[in-house]
């Protein structure tokens, strides 16, 4: 008889592996196992004749594939894609929950098969471009066949998803809706549709929050309020998606950021002074990171509202804009200081685990621990930097920049033991890429920033979506601008430092792949109580330039000509500012003379 206080396999409506005397799931989370064994299914599975029974399947239930290709791509997901998607987490939703759901929900099986096929297509496409030219056509044809099958399977999955009516109060529909948003998020990222992917991730996270708010159990932010309905693995994966969305700044929604940065406040307040296990440290790190980046987002959103209220041509209009002393969000300074203290408390509590892991012989543990440390250091710098009014203030983080590069080097060495170095790795962009990118952008120590760029460039081939290559291209452009302003004593003055403030990806347009705008302050003609005078540069990269990390010289005649004449995108405000700058200053000077 099961303990009434602990949900079991049957109550959770999940697949039991029927191991005796206790199934793996119940054994892992230490609860009674009372799953009722089912009779063998009489339906004949359409498995390839040469394949062995998939090891997740038990005699009582097996997967039902439409054809042999589905079985093949399922194995690709099972043996390759899910392991890479899981990164260093051995029991993630990708390697456990989704595989289990394939036995009960046909749309999940079709989506998993699609991910497996996309995995083959993207990697085969990489080999086509990286391999011998004589083999390029044949490899691209193979890649296209993989993609055609992936798209067809994705379409079949969507047909099944359309039957789902998401109701937070209905455990079955809630779980299916969360699984649907999760697989769509993954597939749309692979299709280079990050906006669609992030929107689906947000839909799922909002649904999860609605359900959590209605639970009697407190949502600590560390685990599911009721793992009998929503697995911890699903809860954690949506936390990961929410963090990535916050880092990318997402939608300009001030109330959303104000609410979500406060999630788990009591939990963080009661954080241990020393973590006992790695899993505990990981969960607290993700919660603190989410809170931190939503506070960063709130500071940006507040300044954009200020721009709209004052209609001033020099207040910020996009995340990452250069901050002026007269527009620092002073009402957030106390919260900023408390969040920085929380980050430093985590670093201190994590220190024993970090030290022990660096001496470990397990490359998986080494990489995960190093990554957690790198990410939290980057969060600290991102939060502090959101309030900086001078670029030279980043120089105080030189020890953190140095540690980020050192640990990234260590992760790369460990990864050589985990994955084939000549092949791309199928994963989401939440690894060392952003910390290394920020180090290259904000660390003006020539040796450190060059090594950060080198690591970005040398590992970019492992990202089949080529996003890391674009990061390296953007950073290289800024570094080249700044290095021209380096003084004989080795320093770069404030007016020689540039910051990237606006990005547009022209997806699937080889001739117009990525446009960026950067800015620098060149003085305060009216005093620091007014916004600084700025200089802007705009650069558009072709697909080849963006993905091969070749950064051509900037040319004002080309890149500040008319704004995107063949496009329907609205002109960003930072371009408009440049156009009105001379007129604004001229009008001010005339008023002074008068």
Can you tell me about this structure?
- With 594 residues, the protein is mainly α.
- It has helices spanning 9-12, 24-28, 68-85, 93-101, 106-130, 136-161, 171-190, 194-213, 232-247, 254-260, 265-269, 278-310, 333-358, 363-385, 398-415, 433-442, 446-459, 467-483, 543-547, 556-559, 573-593, and strands at residues 499-505, 514-523, 533-541.
- The longest helix is centred in the middle third of the chain and has 33 residues, at 278-310.
Keywords:
single chain, 594 residues, mainly alpha, 3-stranded antiparallel β-sheet, 3 strands, 55% helix, globular, disordered C terminus
How can the largest sheet be summarized? 3 strands, antiparallel
Give the proportion of residues in helices.
40-55%
Shape: globular
- Element-by-element helix/strand order: HHHHHHHHHHHHHHHHHHEEEHHH
Strand order of the largest sheet: 1-2-3
Q: Give the structural class.
A: mainly alpha
How would you state the average pLDDT, rounded?
Answer: 80
Strand content: under 5%
What's the count of strands? Answer: 3
For the termini, the CA-CA separation is 91 Å
Radius of gyration over C-alpha positions, nearest whole angstrom: 26 Å
Number of helices: 21
The low-pLDDT segments are: 1-14, 18-22, 27-32, 34-60, 590-594
Topology overview:
Layout: H1 9-12, H2 24-28, H3 68-85, H4 93-101, H5 106-130, H6 136-161, H7 171-190, H8 194-213, H9 232-247, H10 254-260, H11 265-269, H12 278-310, H13 333-358, H14 363-385, H15 398-415, H16 433-442, H17 446-459, H18 467-483, E1 499-505, E2 514-523, E3 533-541, H19 543-547, H20 556-559, H21 573-593
Antiparallel strand pairs: 1-2, 2-3
